[in-house]
Amino acid sequence: MDNSYVSLISTNPQDVKVSSTLDKSTGKKHLTDNNPETCWTSRQGSGQYVQLTFEKLAIPKHITITFQGGFVGTKCRVEVAESSDRPEWRTWTYIHPEDANRRQIFDLTACRDGLPGEGIQSMKLVFEESSDFYGRITIYELKIEGLRL
User: Fold this and answer.
1) Rounded CA gap, 72 and 113, in Å?
2) Which of 22, 30, 65, 102 could disulfide-link to 38, CB 3.0 to 4.6 Å?
3) Burial of 128 by CB count in 10 Å (0-12 exposed, 13-18 middle, 19+ buried)?
4) Alpha carbon separation from 90 to 32, 39, 85, 124, 128 (Å, rounded)
5) What Å distances lie between residue 100 and 50, 69, 74, 121, CA to CA?
6) For residues 5-17, b (16+ Cβ closer than 10 Å) or e, as one string?
7) Model confidence pLDDT, tens digit, residues 42-98
8) What share of the chain is helix, strand, coil (3-state, %, to 5)?
């Protein structure tokens, strides 16, 4: 991995939105707290998502996710928007995490098509399929790295 990439995820909790949360102990704040003991867990249902707003325009290069096995978003649509005020979401690419309890890194450097040349302000990970029968997703770690513009 290129060491010149920086974390694009803001520490401001207002910059992270999720489709649902199972309960307070598994809230969205745990997505970005850098604590491997805490997690975000969604409620049941298809189409769970995590939406991120970046502090500045950016070009994402890597997505790092650690799921709880059995609660993995096995098909994830990566959507992007140039603006965060009224985002117009468009599909950029898909990633396909394995149903495993380990860190998984997805390289986005080859996915240049569909990304605005000026960069993006927002990204949404939409979990279209889950390894859980009820559609729940559990994430212990989420990192987006890339270039700030």
Assistant:
1) 26
2) 30
3) middle
4) 24, 27, 15, 10, 15
5) 19, 4, 10, 30
6) beebbeeeeebbe
7) 999 999 999 999 999 999 999 999 999 999 999 999 999 998 888 899 999 999 999
8) 5, 45, 45
